[in-house]
Amino acid sequence: MVSCSTLSFQISEPTMLELRPNCEHCDKDLPPHAQDAMICSFECTFCLDCVNHKLQGVCPNCGGNFKPRPIRPPSMGRNDNDLAHYPARTTRLFRPVDLVKHVQTLVDEKPSHLAPLSNGNAR
After folding, report:
1. Mean per-residue pLDDT over the chain, rounded
2. Do the strands 2-3 and 45-47 form a parallel or antiparallel pair, or are they unpaired?
3. pLDDT tens digits for range 72-88
């Protein structure tokens, strides 16, 4: 525990992204080095094809947008921040999205925090 007169906090192990191994919708393999892995702020993981062509760039779980998932170096990362020391998750999460319901939700709710796609890229 570290403390001073106005601040007290406990130093703990860093929290890393899980680097989930597959697209939750189509079950495509998304290994740690996959450049088409997309995540939302809750780390729901989908492939770029599903994000752009099926999910309309909106996470079906939280309603947020997607960003490319960072790639963790396999080894020799600075300060041991690499896959060798912080391996990717191996448990798969496969829960296909009801696309009709998802699209209807987008039509009904019209999420104002998401700008329309202009060039086919994820929001």
Report:
1. 86
2. unpaired
3. 998 886 788 899 999 99
Q: Which residue has the tokens 């929290």?
A: 15
Per residue in 89-119, pLDDT (tens digit) is: 999 999 999 999 999 999 998 877 765 544 4
As separate numbers, helices (DSSP H) first and strands (DSSP E) second, the chain gives 2, 5
Pair of tokens at residue 73: 């170096």
Tokens of 115: 């700008």
Show the 3-state SS of 11-61: CCCCCCCCCCCECCCCCCECCCCCCCEEECCCCCEEEHHHHHHCCCCCCCC
DSSP β-bridge partners for residue 27: none
DSSP annotation of 107: H
Contacts of 109 (CB under 8 A, 6+ apart): 63
* Amino acid 118: pLDDT: 44
CB contact at 8 A, 20 and 70: no
pTM across the whole model: 0.79
pLDDT at position 6: 62
